[in-house]
Amino acid sequence: MLSPLLLLAAVVFHKDIEPLLQKHCQQCHRPGEAAPMPLLTYEQVRPWAKAMRQAVVQGAMPPWHADPAVGKFANDSRLPAEAVEAFRQWVDGGAPRGRAADAPKPLRFTDGWTIGQPDAVFEMPVDFEIPAKGDLDYIHFAVPTNFAEDRWIERMEVRPGNRASVHHIGVYIRRKGSTWLPQLTADGKGLPLRDRTVGRTPVDEHFAMYLPGYGGEVLEPGQARKIPAGADLVFQLHYITTGKPAKDRSRIGFVFARQPVRELIHTVPVGDPTIVIPPGEAEYKSRANFFVSMPLRVLGIAPHMHLRGRSFACDAILPDKSRQALLSVPRYDRNWQRRYVLASPPSLAKGSWIQCRAVFDNSANNPWNPDPTATVRWGDQTRDEMMVGYVDVALPPDAQPERFYVRPK
Fold first, then answer.
1. Which domains, ranges and CATH numbers included, belong to the chain?
2. Cross-strand pairs, 128
3. Residue from 52, 50, 56, 53 nearest 81 by CA
4. How far, in Å, are 3, 20, 50, 81, 85 from residue 8 at the CA level?
5. DSSP letter at 182?
6. Which pLDDT tens digit goes with each residue over 53-64?
7. pLDDT single digits (tens) 207-241
């Protein structure tokens, strides 16, 4: 971090700006990642200097949309004030290069993975052929893990094979003996399925995801997710067409836990599939509740909506009916969907509720709205809508999903 005294001297690239890019930008701004251009060298950065100044000064980059007045987050990506001032002074001073001898050592990235070298990688068995035009139902692939024993995962990352065509990916655990999607076999075929939830129970859990702006998951020491012995991975892929035929073969990488597990990490989808947004409605409100059936800690929240999503919030409602705000995203941006990791995860007692609330803008004033005259319901395509908060919670390591998903009597 630059001190105010350093900002009195001329700000140059190698000494002052390059370390900031390494710390705050290069994770995404490098070949093969989500950002549109690499920012690894002076030659790559210099043409973008004025645009970077504007984005940094306005707070658009690095992207961060949580209300700073609600909660504190371990992965808060906002630049400190002195870093913003350094970018401003550098560009206003002509964006000088400085001495190459002052440059930090280049960061080393492992084969594109943000989690380090995985212990195990599973991918779709074949390339999926994406047509040039049209809407596609969600495509599903089953990939057997062939684990002979339960495996605990402390780091994981879903990586799309074709970022231009992959809208998002969900990876689920289908336990041995599950009756969910019996027609989906590990024969290399991807199946388009609309009735994909038939036969699915909490035992078939939502395990990992890729969304625009989403990175790999790195858990704290002693925390892990569990893949039961003999389980399959079910890849659920939402593709978009780009006007040209394309191919995709996405994958997921795991780093196994190296120490005893004291907390099982589980993702709870808290959503409202009953949304019906009237034409022209600028402030349609939706909410969803999840009952806390056993003590837990809330680690993070990932909001998910589509083009009409306007704002999102998540609260804890305690047994005494008091409310604790966990997250507020007043200006939701579907282009940057992320997991907000709580800096001090709160503990919730049995009998609490987790409540997610969302507002949608289906009016003509929403520049992203594809059709303000449409009645909008829950659906797979981006012209439809979704309302769900993926809430990561910490449970005892022996917790069973079938006992966790219960409603109060």
1. 6-102 (no CATH), 110-260 (2.60.120), 262-409 (2.60.120.230)
2. 248
3. 56
4. 9, 17, 21, 15, 11
5. T
6. 999 999 989 989
7. 999 986 677 899 999 999 999 999 999 999 999 99
